[in-house]
Write a structure and sequence with these properties.
CATH class: Alpha Beta
Order of helices and strands: EEEHEEEEHHEEHEHEHEEEEEEEH
Number of domains: 1
CATH topology: Chorismate synthase, AroC fold
Binding site for FMN: 125-127, 241-242, 286, 301-305, 327
Radius of gyration: 21 Å
Bound molecules: flavin mononucleotide
CATH superfamily: Chorismate synthase AroC
Distance between the termini: 50 Å
Number of helices: 7
Enzyme class: lyase
Shape: globular
Largest sheet: 5 strands, antiparallel
Subunit structure: Homotetramer.
Helix content: 25-40%
EC number: 4.2.3.5
Strand order of the largest sheet: 1-2-3-7-4
CATH architecture: 4-Layer Sandwich
Pfam families: Chorismate_synt (PF01264)
Strand content: 15-25%
Structural class: alpha+beta
Length: 367
Amino acid sequence: MSLNSFGHLFRVTTWGESHGPALGATVDGCPPGVEIDAAAIQHWLDRRKPGQSKFTTQRREPDEVEILSGVFEGQTTGTPIQLMIRNTDQRSKDYGDIVEKFRPGHADITYWQKYGIRDYRGGGRSSARETAARVAAGGVARAALATLAPGLRITGYMVQMGPHAIDRGRFDWDQIEQNPFWVPDAQAAEDWASYLDGLRKDGNSVGAVVEVVARGVPAGLGAPIYGKLDTDLAAAMMSINAVKGVEIGEGMAAAALTGTENADEIFMGNDGQPVFSSNHAGGILGGISTGQDVVVRFAVKPTSSILTPRRTITRSGAATEIVTKGRHDPCVGIRAVPVGEAMMACVLLDHLLLHRGQIGENRGRIG
Ligand SMILES: Cc1cc2nc3c(=O)[nH]c(=O)nc-3n(C[C@H](O)[C@H](O)[C@H](O)COP(=O)(O)O)c2cc1C
């Protein structure tokens, strides 16, 4: 079975394990003529790489990407692009305990139940090292989007850590790059630092909510019913390790609104384009982008590998306790931000290519 790929026309297959020699992505369907080099992809990988602050795993991986195929003289050729990242800082001895024991909240037990064999070193395929491959593929998607949809910008940030949400009144785009949490609220960044430090020292972890916004998305991407843009975005975000919930626009909160509150009223703008009074829809109606910001949020559960003992069983079914040593993220939501951005880039490019294939230029003129 081939269940390691996603995308329709822009198709990404990831491969590799945490403690194998390397991992990577095969990107098929990228249009030719896109200007790209390893440095452009590296830019995005550097945002995800471990060990950048005391609030992420202390694994020291440079995450250097190598382009093995599909690029000639600085441009994509239209053939498969093979991206490889070597694993250089494995410490398999840290994982001795999980050879026999299943970590509560991790994939150890289900991998064992399904396959009867598992690469326990660093979590093998279930390790979030796999997300480095997605970010590399997202770098290719971003380069293609820069050519095909100039002006489209994708930005991810954290909006909640544990019970502590940001104050939307203090939202500042410029703050996002200024703190280790990618949070657009300077006060939240300060508060979260001491909160997370306390949890980390206690051998505990915490969940988070990440929001990813795409601005400058053309109207018309996505298709009704089975090809909805929101369906593919939700699947893409849900496929990220540790994600337990996804929302588009108002999301779950839409259930508490009335029709009058939820209506994004439509007006004709001065530039001949429709404008909306609000964006409860998250930029998607009937599975098709409206031209407003596309807004996706996802909830990330707390890291399951923690230093506080938890009860579990061994492979033979004996009751035991587990303390997971090794270098783990106390809040995986932080490094999930660049991963969410990458998934947004891949899905939007995929739908841009689908739209070009079926329709070409948008046909429905207003005015
Ligand atoms: C960026 C990122 C980093 C992660 N780091 C860790 C980690 O250090 N330790 C851990 O136990 N889980 C970590 N996870 C989560 C596990 O990979 C995930 O919980 C596991 O694969 C089980 O899958 P599920 O949570 O989706 O069910 C991380 C997830 C992401 C997105």
